[in-house]
Lrp/AsnC ligand binding domain-containing protein
Amino acid sequence: MYMNSAHHGNFIDFINMSYDILEAHRISGEGCYHLKFRVKTKVQLNDLLQKLLTYGNYSLNISVHQLKTNHKFIENDGLDNAK
């Protein structure tokens, strides 16, 4: 997701209220946010994409086949989390 504005509060409220959005990540690099969502129909997809346009532009990638799911949490991620 590529935001139109530096003020993301309304967008964050939208993603937290949206049933179809499964995950949302603030990212570095290309774009501002990575969203993972699931819809059942093309109509639902179009409706969600239209709503997202309120906040900015998007790049869409569609999964055609899931090869692996890993839900394990890695405690030592190599990042220095010391305060």
